[in-house]
Structures are given as C-alpha cells and as structure tokens.
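INTERNAL TRANSFER SHEET
From: sequence group
To: structure group
Subject: Aldehyde dehydrogenase

Please process the attached sequence and return the structure record in the designated field. Keep the field labels unchanged so the import script can parse them.
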Amino acid sequence: MSVQLRGQKMLIGGIWVERDRIIEVRDPQDNSLIDHVPAASKEDMLYCIEEAKAGAKISAELSVHERIEIIHRAADYIEENKEKYANIISREGSKTIREARKEAARCIQTLRISAEEARRINGETLSFDQLPGSENRVGYYYRFPIGIIAAITPFNDPLNLVAHKVGPAIAAGNAIIVKPASVTPLSALLLAEAFFHAGLPPKVLSVITGHGREIGDTLITHPAIRMISFTGGLEAGEDIVRKAGLKKISMELGSNSPVIVLEDADLEEAVESTVSGAFWAAGQNCLGVQRIYIQESIMEKFQQAFILRTEQYCLGDKQSLETDMGPLITEKEAIRVEKMVDEAIAKGAILLTGGKRNGAFYAPTVLTNVPDDCQIAKEEIFGPVVLLFPALDLNAAITKSNSVDYGLQAGIFTKNIELAYQAISKLDVGGIMINDSSDYRMDAMPFGGVKKSGLGREGIKFALQEMTEPKVVCFKLSAR
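Return from structure group:
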C-alpha cells in the first residue's frame, strides 16, 4: 500500500497520525513554508515506545529472507521515486539538487547493503575443549537482536543518515524509533513511507517528529530503549551520555578535519578535491575539510590555485543545475559562522576570499594566518570556511593535524608511499584518505572517529555488530 506523504503526519506504531500542534518546515533559501509536521508530546513518545516493544518481538521473528525482501522493496520504491526524494532533500535542507540526487542514490545503496548484510549475521563454533575438564563440551555462539533502538538524526544528510540507522536495525531484527531533526523531518518520513510501502510489519518502525526539548529525554532515558544511535553535535552527545543510563550508545559527533598537501602532490587534483570537500553541502558536513596543511615550498602556488577555484564556486538557487552551493540550514547558523570568522580576523587572521553573508547564505570563505586560540581553529565550524596553513614538512603537519580534540577523518596528498604510511600510522583519526580529501565515505566502510568525534562505528556491517548481541550455546555431552 502506498501513502503519498508530504509531511503532515508522523508514523507511530504503523499508523500515520496528525496532531493539532505542528512544526513548520521551511526552505532555508527563502524561508518559504514547505509543509508542516506534528509536534509530538511526551505522551506520544511513551505510546510510541510501548508500540515498539511489540514491534521488537515481531521484527525478531521475521526470517532473514523476509528482512532482505522488505529492505530491497523499500530501496526499489525510493529508486522508482528518486526525483521526489531528491526534491524534498533539497527543499527542506541546504543541498543543491545535484547534491540531493547523490544523497538519494546513496540511500538506495545503503539499504541494498543492509539487505545483503542481513544474510551475514553469523556466529562461529567454539572450542570448549581448550579448557582442561571441558573435553566433552561443544558449542557455538550466534547473534540476536537487542530490541528497541532510538535513532536521533541530523539535518545535513536527512535521508541517507536515517537509512544508515534504519537499514541495519531492521536487517538485524530490531524495532527502531527515529527522531529526525525538526528542521528536516520530511526526508525521514519519506523513508518511512518506503518501508510502509515495502510491507514492513507495523510497529517495527516509527518516525516521530517533535522538539527535542519535549520528547528527547523521554526517548533516551526510557529503560526499554536498548541502544541510542546519535549523529549530531558534541554538546548534545555529551548530554545524552549523561542521561541515557545502562544501554548501548553509538555516536558520531563531528570533527575539524585536516588535509595535508605535500610538495610532490598532484596540485590540480589536490585543489579540486579540497575545494569540493570544504564547500559540499555549504560546509555542513562532519567530514568537511576545515584545515589544510600545505608544505611551505608549494604554499603560495597552492593558495593561489585554491582561491581561484573557490571564487569560481557558484552560490545561489538550490534547484539550479548551475549552482554549486546553497544556503546554510538557517540564518541563525549563517550568523554563527560569520561571528566565528569575524573573531578570527579580529585576532589577526587574513581573509583571502569570501567572508560575506546574505541571510542564510554565506560565501565560500578562505582564511590564512589563523591564530591557534581562535574558536574556528579548534572547533568544528560546520560551515563553508576553510583554513590554510604552511607546514615545514610531514611531521609538522601531522603534529598540527592532531592538535585538536577531534579525530574523524583526514586526507593526505602525496605520491610517496612511505610518507603516506607514516601519515597512516601517526594521524589520530578514524579514517585516512590517501590522495583524496577527508570528505570521502563509502556506505559499506566502518565510519566513526576518536577523541571527541564519537563512539563506535557506523557502516552497515559494523552497525549490525552494535545492534546485535552474541549468545553462547554449550552442550555438555555424555562422557566419551
């Protein structure tokens, strides 16, 4: 059964419901009203959790082939309606239509990987006779679903990051409650529509829309919730950890990603990759390039080429195929970025290009000579700003790269494999991209960071490990 949903309803326990209290969903480009969604109450969340308890039992009893078929049908539905999904991603968020189409395509891939990984939730036999006195014991372990998962998702990838939580949760046989960002709830509801259309049993998936301050604590503190999968800011993540209690926690909390460019690098490739990595989705990207350390011998040449390419970046209408970058998610966010840049300039940073705001739009911005004590040098900016620094050599660049409290991903451009391996071993990050910017992710790879960048790993196979538990089975046989 297909439901033509454009917001307005949320999915609780398999039922699409409305509420008198609403949240308006506006296009950040011009603040025009796109739609509205229900503003759920604490009572709605409590009811949702009760329904999910039944959903967890239903999901656990689904055979593996049923889970595979349902997830593939959901992916098929999105593929058949890909342009609708892309349009919603672009309208409610910051992405251009070209960026949104890529996200919709990645969501399809994420779900198909989830379906395939469902058949590979395996255990293994155990050699109990390695312990003296256990010669007459044999056994194995297998993995079972943990129950109800709470997924709290951000605005910057409003479809695919939801799929990264929903796909493996269903593949593992769990129930899942999704609380999407209140500024971009429509994409998550469209993902629920795909699973509704695909025949997912009621109560397995709920997408509940509302303000975090009203329903968030109820979700994260409830004892029936066995895992919280959160993608968002550090402050919110730390608050969840303090409140959650005894349950599994997976967190992706952002970064301040470095890229190193050595003198033997392909300069054209490095410039093109880092410009894209810095300004994709208006820089609202946890993998976005924020700091670039360039070997001193090529600093001037790289800087000139980088500025030239940045100034060619087209800022404008998200729906135009000519546009490279749209607005930030709200004018408030653009003002926050503006203040961070202004603070750096006041402390001695040099503005090479950009630095201009128009409503929610903030021009692609490049700074150099940024003091270490600036907020923009230490924290995640989550906006279209990149910092260029000279570095004497690789060791100096690595030291500076590791100097912040984050460690999600990094990149290095070099043709010297020994230098690449030196960076691999010494950079304190969850992933390193060789001859690419930090802004690369394949949906099947383990994804996550160290330090304040988070806990655990996403990526379907790796999320499935977090969303299941091992159960040991041991047979004591008659004496041989």
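Handover comment: Residues 97-118 form the longest helix (22 residues). The chain has two domains: 10-253+454-472, 257-444.
Transfer complete.
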